[in-house]
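Hi R.,

Here's the chain you asked about this morning:
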Amino acid sequence: MKRDVPKRRADAAPMTELPLDFEAFHRMHRPAYVGWAKTYLNNKADAEEAVDCAFEQLLIAWPEVLTKESPAAYAWQVMKNRTIDAARARGRREALIDSAAFETTALREAVNPIGQLEESINLFQAIEALPERQRDVVVLLYSHGHSAREAAEHLGITPAAVRSTARHARRRLQEILGLAKEGQDDDVAH
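And the predicted structure, written out as tokens:
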């Protein structure tokens, strides 16, 4: 049975057995990492390559990664940096608006597709304007459908921090989109 481990580039040195904790980490996080990277690269093959490069980097430094306060948070940042590097290498910017605005369920089911497209573009522009952590939480929770617990595991933070960040992100999105009302209480979790 073939083990699900990072692919190695042809020019990489041959590997011996992988640490079991690395294999478990890889299996747990790779699907979410590829999903996130695909959102920004708008191409699954490019996303897989960027994530595989991130895991190669993590493997090389694995003993040091394990000494970090949050190995998952460190790995998330490595993956994001590799994704950004992949976008730059291909002369592209992050593609959140480019792909997501056209792939929403709301757009497919809209009575007025043009109006829904405008709303989707406005929403994704607002999401891009969020601080980095809020944007990551919004993408994981609302674009990719992860639970707060799952998002927390991938980001290397607590579920409470995910919920709090999501609450702040929703408030900020309402402000950006001009939907905030005076005295509105948005503290109830959605």
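Confidence is low (pLDDT under 50) at residues 186-190.

Let me know if you need anything else.
M.
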